[in-house]
Specification:
The protein is an all-alpha fold. The protein folds into two domains: 3-46, no CATH class; 57-147, no CATH class. The chain has helices at 2-23, 29-40, 84-93, 121-141. The longest helix has 22 residues, at 2-23.
Length: 147
């Protein structure tokens, strides 16, 4: 979760500066850093897990759009853990648009654009991951030509 590590680093730096001024020479700066880090490590919790609701094995295993939330399909299973509609799509295209619910939620669509899942701060994290992925792609494509 890149956004979280960025926020934690910034928070750590600001708190260190502030506390350093306030406490002056009374306290070991290493101890302050350690205490802040311990506290900040708990902030991972503000990002909800991608699939907050566990997979219901009795229902179709496909992930659906569901108003940008990416929920599990609510239809009953027809074949191979999928409902009729998703089984057809899966066999026609060879994949499911939003993967299976027990698989990772895709961050880009078929056209290579980011999927605007709506879940607050996680959406920002998705943008970060998408930009990072693009950067890696560009770095790979770059050809080094002799001058
Ligand atoms: Zn389905």
């Amino acid at each position: 979760m890149y956004i979280i590590s960025i926020l934690q680093k910034r928070c750590l730096r600001e708190l260190e500066e502030e506390l350093e001024e306030e406490l002056e020479d009374d306290v070991d700066p290493g101890l302050i850093t350690q205490l802040i880090k311990e506290r900040l490590s708990k902030f991972e919790d503000i990002l909800p897990p991608q699939s907050a609701t566990p997979l219901d094995p009795t229902k179709c295993h496909a992930r659906v759009w569901a108003d940008k939330t990416g929920a599990q399909c609510s239809h009953k299973i027809d074949k191979e853990c999928l409902c009729g509609k998703h089984w057809n799509i899966s066999h026609k295209k060879g994949y499911l648009e939003f993967n299976r619910y027990d698989e990772e939620r895709p961050i880009i669509n078929e056209k290579g654009n980011p999927i605007p899942w709506n879940d607050g701060i996680v959406s920002i994290d998705t943008i970060f991951r998408y930009q990072r992925m693009n950067l890696h792609k560009l770095l790979k494509q770059r050809k080094i030509t002799p001058q």
